[in-house]
Design brief:
Strand order of the largest sheet: 1-2-10-3-9-8-4-7-5-6
Distance between the termini: 14 Å
Number of strands: 25
Strand content: 15-25%
Number of domains: 5
Structural class: alpha/beta
Shape: globular
CATH class of the largest domain: Alpha Beta
Number of helices: 39
Largest sheet: 10 strands, mixed
Length: 1005
Amino acid sequence: MPRRPPCKGLTVQLRMAVTDSVTPQSQAYQQTKGNMEDHSNGKTEYTSLHEVSYPPGHEGRLSSELAATPSRKPAKEYPFTLDPFQQEAIRCLESGESVLVSAHTSAGKTVIAEYAIALSLRDNQRVIYTSPIKALSNQKFRELSEEFSDVGLMTGDVTISENASCLVMTTEILRSMQYRGSEVMREVAWIIFDEVHYMRDRERGVVWEESIVMAPKNSRFVFLSATVPNAREFTDWVAKVHQQPCHIVYTDFRPTPLQHYVFPSGGDGLYLVVDEKGTFREENFHKAINAVTAGYEKRNRATNPKRKRDYENSENSDIFKLVKMIMLRQFDPVIVFSFSKRDCESLAMQMAKLDLNNEDEKSLVDGVFSNAMDSLSEDDKKLPQVGHLLPLLKRGIGVHHSGLLPILKEVIEILFQEGLIKCLFATETFSIGLNMPAKTVVFTNVRKFDGDKFRWITSGEYIQMSGRAGRRGLDDRGICILMLDEKLEPAVAKSMVKGLPDPLNSAFHLSYNMLLNQMRCEESDPEALLRKSFYQFQCDRALPQLQDKVLCLEKEWEDKKIEDEDNVKNYYSLLEQSRKLHHEVQNIVFSPQHCLPFLQPGRLARVIISGMHENEELFLKSEEPSVWGVLVNFEKVKGSSLASMDESVKGLAIEAGHMIDILSNCAISSERNKDETVRPVPLDETGEPIVASLPLSRIESLSAIRINLAKDLRSLDAREATLNKVREILRRFPDGLPMLDPEDDMQVDSSSYKKAMRRLERIENLIETQSLKSLPNLEDRLRSYHEKEELKQLIKAARQDVRAATNLVFKDELKYRTRVLRRLGYATNDDVVELKGKVACEISSADELVLSELIFKGLLKDASTEQMVSLLSCFVWQEKVKSEKNLSEDLATLYSQLRETARRIGKVQQECKLSVDVEDYANSFRPDIMEMVFAWAKGAKFSEIMKLGNVFEGSLIRAMKRLEEVLQQLISAARSIGEQELEEKFQAGSALIKRDIVFAASLYL
């Protein structure tokens, strides 16, 4: 790994200043400023903030005392001038105190980690270096091994020199060592947490919190993080939990400034929207947006799918033009980010006519690739992925995503580092941890699917990926290019490219494995862990603000005086009752049993406009705003329909059981993507004639009039002509269209309908007789009373927030989960871990309850080793794929028993008041790769098993590695309960899958 060279012409002047700002738990320490004279930008202001958090009751030292710490020879010296923030962090380390270094990518955080390791080795102490992913651990092991001699590696897959003084490992391994009471933990002086902002990860973030809370009391920490706006909050938490000072050295200085451009889809040029000084250029942005609209129309002129395909794969495609432009302007190397594995590959294929390497470089690529592939068998060398990639790589074009074979990913990383790949198409994961900057970064899209919906990428995600642009010491600036094919509001764009990083918020959650391990440890206690969690700390810290919010709302409520309030209250109450009764009547009349016979195509219908409930005038009306449209179709809601439905209508659709397709004038959101929203609007407003799907409950009334519909409404002209007919009919009936009468026409004769109508008539008569009705300022008084009622609801919610923050978070969930463990026999009423619990304690990479139940049910013992391994694949496979073939009878029986066990456990959790959907829980165990894993365990070649399913090679290998990890945990579990036969069976299963390309050694090792 090449070292960072000193920046030429760089001079640093340091000015110290001690500030007086002190908070109960933290003290501002000092601020460092200096002028950096850069050969590209002249003078730029460098700011490094240095603060220190102290635990409660701890008297902080002044900066002069820290500076007066006896100095020894530096543990490590560098051939370049250290930046001010690096100097400050190293002073903290030399004083033996923990530090969080928060800085942009490529700012030089690794220098501090290396110094902490050198310090430990100098003082004959042990140090642990943790990283979020195995690939990064492997890469760090390689780098550190070149720098230091006494380095080991522990990732679950590989263990090298486990007794070394410096151990590189994943955070999960560290957590496991802590629970096991490993001897190593007693000797550790420093723990380095790389990429600690990963703690906010929804699934794995909790591991960081557990590891930090359970770390030995005599250890010190080095936290390396991207810039986070609430870094001070994090260090305050560490100081409180470990009763030791924790420094924060924060800098938002970028060694290489960035320029941000927009490339409009279908356009020919770049528009500079944010310059290297961070100025947002509004005029340029609007020009780019106008070019996007023009490009969108241009692309849609090609209605023939074949012509569109030819366009995308030709030299006219946007990505081809952009990459070619980048190469001509010498902005390479470039990383092109896409949020889809398949898109990465298809975009790379569009570069077919680009050749970015000369003959010498091609020869080097061929040599590196051939040497790497020598470790594979002859059959594996013939895999399609291996064969398809080499021609691309030789032309200087690469692809990097989780679906690639791990060995290919590593080859690509090495080639990219050596400058032999000029254009790399990568997914977001390439921006996490791997230190591989480029001159230019391109975003093919600024929207991503986050597992629930499509959304704009956050400013934090943008900062993380754009941070790869600009190589320190090589580039005078980094280039970021956003490819836009949809409208982006200036406010959204500005917040994306100039916004703050994502805050470091806790993703703490309880698991059964955590609870059982806490019960089993002598000095541990689940409640104590909850109290010390960052989640609890953030809740406690928010308490004063929540209490102030309640006081402010209460004062606002008291200050809102309304003339003749009691009478206004009564009148308001009548209006509310009237509105609710209207709803009740509507729900009865337009229930499927009454209205389905009248939902013929062509019938005119009024539908309630969605999203109008917030209208401040609505409480004055008994009916909600509605618009006219033409019924096209109706259908019963099915599961597949719900999957793609907008969240705002999904609940209503489920309740109603039917959806209607209605042609109406609609406003459509500017996002031309899968989650675009369509909302009916009045016929005289600007909109488009669109057939929208709405829940049946949105029908307000049905007209007696039907019109003839065109046979095909797919063309815009046909839809527009139909709406013009509706406009003409409305013009002919100025007093209103003839409507279907609920009783006479629709035969609604239920007792609930009659009762609701009688109550509605009584309420409306009372409203008519109200003396207040004629007052000229009644509307203002009602509006004020409505605001006062809303304030009352806000006060109620704020008080609930205060109560929740006062109590221990997760207290109820802890009680419910403990109840589950007792019901299933994992722990006694005195929280003593039983035999089943000992097994679940060892399982952290899969569902510990279901897996433990299968063991004690005898299912894993009775199945053959190959079948057992195949069944375990259901615990590690998470991607959704379409299975192309049914399971064999034996595997289907095993899978059925697994689902039955999952349902039983799901029901127990439900009965213990946990929010669990039993069917969703059972469906989370996916059988998609069972046949593939079974064939692999039987000895099939990798090329043969890839024909059994439509999955990426890399995704399957990652699942196999996770499967082997689970098997290792099951070996430990069987050993812990003295099940030798089962232990041997798990070992045999591990041996069956651990072979060939699936477990090929990392090139970094």
